[in-house]
Design a protein that fits this description.
The protein is α+β, with helices and mostly antiparallel strands and 281 residues long. The chain contains six helices and twelve strands.
């Protein structure tokens, strides 16, 4: 499901200094940061509410997952903005969506605007960042089995439920469920609504392998022209991810995918973003 990387002769593979890729992703597994060291970083970088929340987890694996995900956020924000990890101020909307609070003074690396979104599941972390508009990301493991998938399908639009049912039971059907689920999560998180947006109020039409053929937005997001771009990824075997983002016309429709914990600016994989999804009737 991983889209092909850009060829070296692709125009977007030679980014101009003043036109950086519109979207950046970081995919990091928990194994890439030793637990003891991750907790040292958490003690130095996370703010008091984050440290307090980390201590509330009953199981160490859940605490470790939270710590890895949130030190990843602060490291990436430091690389992208120049604000040190321990000085970044992150606030949450009433619906729980995190935002980076711009410092009242000083110049941010890369410009004043920035939006990010985080998702993690069972040892895998995905962070998306965009300089304009909003971004939403979601990641799920295909080997989660049937845990809650029947309930998930019941939240989909009728045509999506029929599409899922057309696949053979087992892994093919599970893949269809999780493809739709990650796309719906990514879109609702980009909107800042989370589970407050009913999943049957909008729908996707998907290609057999990967790719969005059409999108029916909810009633409160009908712009008259397509604007949302949706990308499906498989950054690791049996790990499905989705991105929902708006890119301004004329901006480089390219995504940078970084693997591993970002100790430095490693060479990312460049992926062309699909065209805006056609609007379904």
């Amino acid at each position: 499901m991983m889209p092909a990387a850009l060829r070296r002769d692709h125009p977007a593979a030679h980014g101009e200094p003043d036109r950086p890729p519109a979207v950046k992703l970081w995919f990091c597994t928990n194994e890439e940061l030793v637990a003891d060291f991750a907790h040292i970083l958490a003690g130095a970088w996370l703010d008091a509410p984050e440290r307090e929340l980390a201590e509330r987890f009953l199981f160490e694996r859940d605490r470790h997952q939270y710590v890895i995900a949130h030190v990843l956020v602060r490291r990436v924000l430091a690389l992208e903005t120049g604000v040190p990890e321990s000085e970044a101020v992150i606030w949450r909307s009433p619906r729980g969506r995190p935002f980076f609070r711009k410092p009242p003074e000083g110049v941010l690396r890369g410009g004043r605007k920035l939006d990010f979104n985080l998702s993690h599941t069972h040892g895998h972390n995905l962070l998306g960042l965009v300089r304009r508009h909003r971004i939403g990301v979601d990641v799920e493991r295909l080997d989660r089995g049937e845990r809650g998938l029947n309930t998930v399908v019941e939240t989909f639009a009728p045509q999506e439920q029929r599409w899922v049912a057309m696949a053979p039971e087992g892994r093919p059907q599970d893949r269809r469920v999780l493809r739709l689920w990650t796309l719906k999560e990514a879109y609702s998180k980009a909107r800042g609504l989370g589970l407050g947006l009913p999943f049957d109020s909008f729908a996707f039409e998907l290609a057999e392998d990967h790719g969005v053929l059409g999108f029916r937005p909810p009633e409160d997001d009908r712009e008259g022209v397509p604007r949302w771009r949706f990308l499906e990824l498989e950054p690791a075997p049996d790990v499905l991810a989705a991105v929902a983002v708006i890119v301004d016309p004329g901006a480089p429709a390219v995504l940078q995918l970084h693997h591993g914990f970002p100790w430095s600016r490693g060479v990312p994989q460049l992926i062309a973003l699909p065209d805006p999804a056609p609007i379904l009737p």
